[in-house]
Amino acid sequence: MNKETLTLPGYRELLYRFFASVFLEEIDSRMLEELLQMRFPQAEGNAAWQQDLDAGFRMIENYLHTFDGKSDTKKKESLEYLAADYAKTFLAAGDATGKAAFPYESIYVGTDSTFGGSIQMNLNAIYAAKGLTMREDMFRVMEDHVGLELNYMAELLAEEVRVSPDPSAAEKLQTEQKEFFRTHLINWILLFTQDVYKYAELDFYKGIARAVTGFMEAEQEFFAE
């Protein structure tokens, strides 16, 4: 994967949606089957983002290879390990210290490290302006969840693809992407992925953290141009 590939709106949308789905919900049997069918690309080059992205994808891929040839019973057991690691990494479940990679912007950039507040309200207004609402089963997830922020970027990119015949409309959406990325992602997500790598035990979530780091580094370069 080279830089030209990663600047394509449709490709970036797919990556944003993939990472959002992994952070929003623990891996279930349906998602696992989809993951086992995926082929993760190789990043070409020696840039920091390429090394992080490629290393992350290889960690994910190698972890998924551990499911090769497993019976349904063994896959179920492995899914339980993944669920436990998700709960520990993002919810501090079973951790006596109560520390985790809590997936909320307000935890990382809020004035008192508490959930929600003005950041949540601001994001609620941003999503509403685009006519976006959360699924009914997401009622426990606040608007500043990393998965929802990544999904919002995916929505902007999907819209850019739709309006691509109109250069001025596409440029407007690129400006929206840059502003949202600057004010609601790059200001905290690299600290978050560091924590995911720190608190996760399984290479699956460590790999996700490394790959997201690389992708965000690439996006940071892209928006700086």
Mind sketching the topology for me?
Elements: H1 3-6, H2 9-24, H3 29-37, H4 48-65, H5 72-91, H6 105-109, H7 117-129, H8 146-162, H9 167-184, H10 189-199, H11 203-224
Question: Can you put this structure into words, describing what you see?
Answer:
- With 225 residues, the chain is mostly helical.
- The chain has one domain (3-224): Orthogonal Bundle (TorD-like), CATH 1.10.3480.
- The protein has helices at 3-6, 9-24, 29-37, 48-65, 72-91, 105-109, 117-129, 146-162, 167-184, 189-199, 203-224.
- The protein is globular, with a radius of gyration of 18 Å.
- The two termini are 19 Å apart.
Helix/strand order, N-terminal first: HHHHHHHHHHH
**What's the domain count?**
1
Specify the CATH homologous superfamily.
TorD-like
Mean pLDDT comes to: 90
Spatial separation of the terminal alpha carbons? 19 Å
Query: Roughly how many Å is the radius of gyration?
Result: 18 Å
Brief summary:
With 225 residues, the protein is an all-alpha fold.
Which descriptors would you attach to this protein?
11 helices; 225 residues; TorD-like; globular; 0% strand; mainly alpha
